[in-house]
Amino acid sequence: MTAPLTRSLDARYYTDPAIFEQEMQGLLSRTWQFGGHVQQIPEVGDYFTFDVAGQSLFAIRGRDEVVRVFYNVCQHRAHELVSGTGRTRVVVCPYHQWSYELSGGLRAGPNIKSVEGFERDKICLTSVRCEDFHGFLFVNLDNDAAPMDDWYPGVRAEIAAYVPHIAELAPLEWVDAPERCNWKVSIENYSECYHCPSNHPTFAEGVVKPETYDIQPDAGGGYVLRHVTECQCHEKMTYPIDMSVPHAGDYQSWFLWPMFSFQCYPGNVLNTYHWRAHDVDNCTVWRGWFTPQGAESEVIRNLSLQDRNTTVAEDITLVESVHRGLKSRGYVPGPLVLDPNCGVMSEHSIAKLQHWMREAVSG
Fold it and tell me: Which terminal Cβ of the chain has fewer Cβ within 10 Å, N or C?
């Protein structure tokens, strides 16, 4: 007896503002989201702001060298505390000059001593759960969430094996790519290479061998999709690699549901994707490129430029067309191509991804 076909998600999962709002209040508030890199705040008092699930947050390095993350809101009358990046000795609210220690506790405020019963030591900025994952800072708005190693089993050790110098890395460049599509459209496009041979000639002919490409969900039930392939023949590679280093000839990517991916390009080149959802029709993808101590590298700069002008630009065209198509009255979700042998021409990773998407909305 033939197994029933697995069809793609209904268009409403991508186009319904109510579903998007449900994701913002649910999924994206209960999962691990990338905030930034520890090398963005190397000195005491350094901070940067970022948004997760519609919430403004900031990371700051304390006098004890501990990096903490707080909601970006004063406990007095809700003014935002900081913006952008900077360095400060204390966090001072611009509205009424209430000040906070780098560890979050209230330090002082104009005339608060005149308030009978005012207990300064009971007022503190609201902290956010944070983990340092090889120098990459992730946050979870759910204080009861399982740790990252439970969500993404084995990934921490695997990345260390593919990028043995990861502790030395710092951001060299961030490339932002606004996309007029639902964030899940962009995530799906990233999570299959069925489209790569026909749409990404530079990536498919100058970086990887598509015939060896495969994407596998975590066998133990973790929220990970692993992309694996071999590098292209040396004479076809668009950049030089040193094959004397372990895994130099391999490409592997670890997509961490729902909005982040570590990539190790051939030559042990670490780069990342992270997504931010703005509304039901818009998101931004950031491509991160890293070098030891953030040192200048002509090879990485050229690789970043090549990626931006080819794969990134090509993907923007694809995902924006898909999002328009999802609003067509003529769209009927078709069956996914699920090859029992998996491989580059199969969409088994999309089946897993869409299962997580349904799960997030249905609970």
Answer: N
